[in-house]
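Model it.
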Amino acid sequence: MKVMHIINDLKIGGLQKFVCELARESSAKHDVVLLVLNNSEKVNKYKVDNKVTVVLGSEKKYISKMLKIRKAIKKHNPNVIHTHGLTLFLSVISHFNFFQSSIKWVHTVHNVAEKEAGKLRRYIHWFSFKFLRVMPVTISNEVDESFRKYYKGIEPFKINNGSIEVSKTSRFNEIERYLKNIKRNIETKVIINVGRIDAQKNQKLLIEAFNELKGSYNIILLVAGSGVEKENLFYQEIVDKCDLENVYFLSEVDNVSDFLFCSDIFCLSSKFEGLPIALLEAMSVGLTCVCTRAGGTSMVINERVGYLSKDFKVSSLSNSLAEAIRNPVEKEVVKSEFIKNYTMEVCFNKYDELYEKLK
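Modeled.
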């Protein structure tokens, strides 16, 4: 079977990492084509397997992207086209002979439905699901629920996101020394947040919760993600209004796994999510995880993983963080929960079953 994944870009992010890892896992069984429409210069950061045929583009205008999609479909003649993010909208319009085609179509909804598609895309997506045999896949219970409300009458197929088990890089010792220098002593607990700095990821809430605790606990906070620049108004608001003592912005790093291995607690303070890959990676390392009730986090976090904030108040998140500091979950327990439910192998097997059953 030949499977073509279509993604808009390869910026550093959970969606992009997931697609590359799924393509790599799929390539052990199928011929896989990864079509990247824009921002292709970062493809090497994701270490796409050489078994995967990567088709790179630099298109920015919609018409150019649609022509790229049409040309790639004609050249590679896939059995399955698997779209991600905004690319279903472009793919449907570009593939004129939809009704005569024998291609199987799958679209993964990576976020709560109303955040993924605005009004125009919503109608095109609905038409695609209803009449063009495109099978929508939701990635968590919360995304599934939002999809059913947003696209009334459409029955999605739910497959939980998966991730590889991350490993240390050649720079681990360097990162370990860096953290040793910024920690007060060997007892200092390291809390880490991974994600671009913006209103959705809501790091301001996390920093405010952290500040409520740092007088009582020996802790530091790492924030790893893009957006550390003056032009980012959300970041500038954090700088202007928050106490940043013992808070360290790492910017965008390509060895985030090394920082995870050197940390004690992983925390997400997002307002909404699909099912965050960063959370699954933290679980694969065995970190105790603390999250707000944002999308798929509510499904993942249980007593074998960590603590869930009851709401989006600073006091609620700080209480959950304090509980994690006092009573961390054993690393092997968290890892076992990841291996049982959220590996990329588990995820791919479910997608593979779906590919086979589609008509």
